[in-house]
Amino acid sequence: MIATRTEVSRKDSLQDGLSPFDRSVLSLLEKTEYRFCESGEDLEAIYRLRYASYLAAGMVREDARRMVTDRFDDLPNAYRFGVFHDGALVSTIRLHYVDSSYSTSPSNEVFGDVLQPRIAAGETFIDPSRFAAAPEWSRALRVLPYVTLRLVILACKHFRPSYCLTAIKEEHTAFYTRIFNAVPATSARTYPGLTIPVYLLQSTCRVDEDSFFQRFPYFRSTAFERRMLFDRPKHGELAPLTILPTAKYLKNAA
Fold first, then answer.
1. Strand-strand pairing, 189-190 and 32-36
2. Using one digit for the tens of pLDDT, what is the confidence trace for 126-176?
3. Cβ–Cβ contacts within 10 Å for residue 131, how many?
4. CA-based radius of gyration for the chain
5. pLDDT reported for residue 69
6. Angle between helices 223-230 and 144-159 (to 10 degrees)
7. What pLDDT is recorded for position 40?
8. Which pTM does this prediction carry?
9. Contacting residues for 50 by C-beta, under 8 A, at least 6 apart
């Protein structure tokens, strides 16, 4: 555990002047832990959660293994996270950081004719994929997508890419346009492992941060939290087991 709840002063709470929706997200964050998953039972758990979520949504066909994984999971630029609520795995997301030194990622595989020339020209990307929520928890925790996608915002803040990519179903484009100001990058295409086509959207990571974090206070974070999530442990060091979100308690999280 990186820190206990009592180690962060509640005097710095963001509750004052917040909307009921903001309070709801921050309240969920209070009982949330992020876990960087790289081996063993953690990986099997998030692969099974993917399958349950995608099967319920009609995005995959039934499979006796009851897991969804692919060759992109084990790439050196991949970050697989589990999101835990009161100790239960409730959602998961995978992120790739894409640059000229390592350009392999799911979106670049599907939309490489569009992205590869941009990478060669020096652009960098955060490429989120495999977002999945446990069906029973997504019904109970309506704001769970915001808590899960917060990891994407933190990755953009940490890596400072040119753009954040989003490969999604058409029905979800309005959400990403409203929250992330995403715009279309290509038309729909077939996506590996899914039974439906996806659209590629992109969001600029060069935003007015003061305005953005005032609008979405639950996306705030400290540099410490971001380092714990995305800095690779040096040789001989142990990776943190879980990382606690910092947005709820810090007024001026960087």
1. unpaired
2. 999 999 999 888 777 889 999 999 999 999 999 999 999 998 888 888 888
3. 20
4. 18
5. 93
6. 90
7. 84
8. 0.85
9. 67, 68, 69, 92, 130, 132
Do 96 and 126 touch, CB atoms closer than 8 A? yes
Pairing between β-strand 88-98 and β-strand 78-85 as defined by DSSP bridges: antiparallel
What the block records as the tokens of 49 is 């959660």
CATH architecture entry for 18-230:
3-Layer(aba) Sandwich (3.40)
Q: Which structure tokens are listed for 224?
A: 């410490």
Residue the block writes with tokens 């950081």: 97
Here the tokens at position 152 are 């994407």
Beta bridge partners of 243: 34
Say which residue the tokens 């040096």 belong to: 234
Cα(203)–Cα(225) distance, integer angstroms: 23
E strand or H helix at 202: strand 197-204
SS (H, E, C) 91-129: EEEEEEEEECCECCCHHHHHCHHHHHHHHHCCCCEEEEE
Compute the CA torsion angle 177, 30, 231, 202 (nearest 10 deg): 0
Residue in 254, 249, 252 with CA at minimum distance from that of residue 29 = 249
Q: Residues in the chain, how many?
A: 254
pLDDT tens-digit series, residues 242-254: 777 876 555 545 5
Report d(CA 118, CA 185) in Å as an integer: 12
Distances in Å between the alpha carbon of 39 and those of 33, 42, 214, 220? 18, 6, 37, 29
